[in-house]
Design brief:
Elements: E1 5-8, E2 16-20, E3 30-38, E4 49-54, E5 59-63, E6 69-76, E7 79-86, E8 89-96, E9 102-106, H1 111-144
Parallel strand pairs: 3-9
Antiparallel strand pairs: 1-2, 3-6, 4-5, 4-7, 7-8
């Protein structure tokens, strides 16, 4: 090493102690990674919380933008697990930042899905109510005759 003297700080050779002035270049491979979060319809989910955790327990956090993307700039290369939280549901995907720059995760629950379920339930309740009303109206007409209005 040019102008730099170092000795190992332990028996495993991990770490070092500087014994003389100098400079040393440490290369740390990093890259940008994006986690895209969509719902079952393929629509982007904005506002989801995304935690990116690497094997050494280093963790990064980002929130998805309105296009459903959580951007992680300058993260270390290597395998990771992304945990996604949104509306009380969670999901996870695994990947590697050195091979997958954009990784897509799909969550089951989102506002469009909730609106669809509410509409479906409202239609089902309306159909049941109309059938019961017709059945009761026919019974009324049989026993008491048709209702006259006006």
């Amino acid at each position: 090493m040019n102008g730099f003297n170092a000795v190992s700080s332990n028996s495993q050779g991990v770490g070092f102690v500087v014994t003389a002035p100098g400079s040393y270049k440490v290369t740390l491979p990093v890259c940008d990674t994006t986690i895209q979060v969509d719902d079952l319809y393929g629509l982007p989910i904005g506002g989801a919380q995304v935690f990116l955790q690497f094997d050494n327990m280093t963790e990064f956090f980002a929130q998805t933008n309105p296009q459903g993307a959580a951007y992680f700039p300058q993260v270390p290369e290597g395998p990771f697990v992304a945990r996604i939280y949104y509306l009380g549901t969670s999901g996870q995907v695994s990947g590697s930042s050195d091979s997958e720059r954009i990784l897509t995760a799909t969550l089951v629950l989102s506002y469009p899905l909730i609106y669809t379920l509410v509409a479906f339930i409202a239609i089902a309740v309306s159909v049941i109510a109309m059938r019961r009303f017709r059945r009761h109206k026919m019974a009324w007409d049989y026993f008491f005759g048709p209702l006259e209005v006006g």
